[in-house]
Amino acid sequence: MGYIHWFILIPFYFFGSLAALPLLIIAARLLRLKVSINVLVGSAIALSLAAIVIPLACDWVDLVWFRGRQMLALGVLSMVLAAVDAALMTALPLPLDNELQDL
């Protein structure tokens, strides 16, 4: 494949970060970690990059694997995780909730 085909990964980085952030927030809520939202966002971006780069570098998947169904699954997963986070927000409040409200 030509080099232009690598641009298909850009939406996967975006949607991967959108799915990883609520996952990390839920983990912080359940573990009662007092972390900043900036740390969680940076970790979500790093997790998203690692989840895409490592399977490609280790030749576990091909570039052809990244298609619309996987992107749709990431989008649905991010919405489900955001809904779970919203449900847990009242039961398990964190200091980062105040940071998010200040934005």
Give structural notes.
The termini are far apart. Helix 1 (9-31) packs parallel to helix 3. This protein has one domain. It has helices spanning 9-31, 37-57, 68-91, 95-102. The chain has four helices and no strands.
Low-confidence runs: none
* Largest sheet features: none
Shape: elongated
Helicity, as a percent range? over 70%
What is the beta-strand fraction? under 5%
Would you count the extended β strands for me?
0
In total, the number of domains comes to 1
Tell me the Rg in angstroms: 16 Å
Measured between the Cα atoms of the first and last residue, the distance is 42 Å
Mean pLDDT: 85
Helix and strand sequence:
HHHH
Class inferred from helices and paired strands: mainly alpha
Helical run tally = 4
Summed up:
Helices cover 74% and strands 0% of the residues. It is mostly helical and 103 residues long.
